[in-house]
Predict the 3D structure of the following.
Amino acid sequence: MTKLIYIDGLEVELTRKRVKKMNMRVKAPDGRIVISAPYIVPDKAVIAFVRSKREWIDRAVSRVRAKAAAHPEPADKKEKESRRRDLKRRIEERLPVIEKATGLYCNGWTVRDMHTRWGSCNTRTHHINLSLMLATRSDAELDYVILHELVHTVVPDHGPDFYALMDRFMPGWKKIRKALNYG
Ligand SMILES: [Zn+2]
């Protein structure tokens, strides 16, 4: 049985259990205060206990919250995996179309959980990496990144030849790059 009690402005989750003594924890990441207490301990003893530990509680809550802010929990693993699957399906569909339309082919591709760039191309092996961040972007944006990396299979840098090919294969690419804030 769990109930919420309020003690001097603190919200405490109190659970009665078959335990020998009272046990208090401050939970990550939000600093929830959770107490388990034996059935026979009255509420007022719990309240007195919390008051006696108030300084410790405040410190623990700040510590837990500061830690959570500095190291945000990674997105739920399952959700990430499903995003990865969806993105892979989209790439499997679009990549061959773009390769065929341009005559530029890669030697393989990988979806990587990278956060600072949308894609990369190994100009020696012609393997391209595509960021998992693309899972939340539009088809046009995905096409742009795929094309960008495919062009790198023949032009390693971002010189005039690179932009000439971009213009040829995707005349509206500048607008898409802007939306992606692509460097
Ligand atoms: Zn590039």
